[in-house]
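Lecture 7, part 2: worked example. A protein chain together with guanosine-5'-diphosphate.
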Amino acid sequence: MTIKRAYYIKSAVDSKDFIVDELPQVVLVGKSNVGKSSFINCIANNRKLAHISGQPGKTRTVNYYKMNDDFYTVDLPGYGYARVSKKEQLVWGDMIDRFLYENANIAAIFHILDIRHPPTELDRKMGDWLKFYELPLVGIATKADKLGKTRWNPRVESIRKDMGWSQFVPIIPFSSVTGQGKDRALELMGIYLGNYHSH
Ligand SMILES: Nc1nc2c(ncn2[C@@H]2O[C@H](COP(=O)(O)OP(=O)(O)O)[C@@H](O)[C@H]2O)c(=O)[nH]1
Ligand SMILES: [Mg+2]
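Predicted complex, written out as structure tokens:
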């Protein structure tokens, strides 16, 4: 699959603003600053589509990007930002819960992790949360440009073990700087979108 057209649609601040229509959604989750916005810009070949933040934790909204006029890429608010109050964490959790629970249009979840580091406790919690929904899952091990190529595979398998992901969960070494893994990510996106349409 290639992305020929990509538009920012909107940022939902509340579950009542979530988009409910007939188009399938590819959903991105990951801790803040892991590279979700960069991933979107990379697959869409547009550096200005999603705002890349030097300051983590700013995005508390669910951001919708329409792609090829036939699906959405949805950027969920990142977790793990230290300077967030207990109340904000609860609001965040409630929003994610509503998004996943009330949403029949999810074609796949792309869980974005940093290839260099073991998944954090929050990464693992998020992973366990997602398992409950039994949605097609892809691991994106990003910032691969910051590691030597020979270390990718050991890191990927270590992430698989730490996340409790079976061998059937694809984990792609990815870099939004070099474009590493982009074709594979788009290929999988196309496959899961295709499967979704055929339900
Ligand atoms: N070297 C490198 N830096 C990246 C990569 N992806 C994101 N970054 C950097 O990580 C920071 C956070 O990226 P962003 O996409 O805003 O993360 P988000 O908070 O998950 O949306 C920015 O400084 C990006 O330039 C990558 O693949 N390689
Ligand atoms: Mg972002």
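The first strand starts at residue 6 and ends at 12. The helical segments are 36-44, 86-101, 121-131, 152-163, 182-197. Keep this in mind for problem set question 3.
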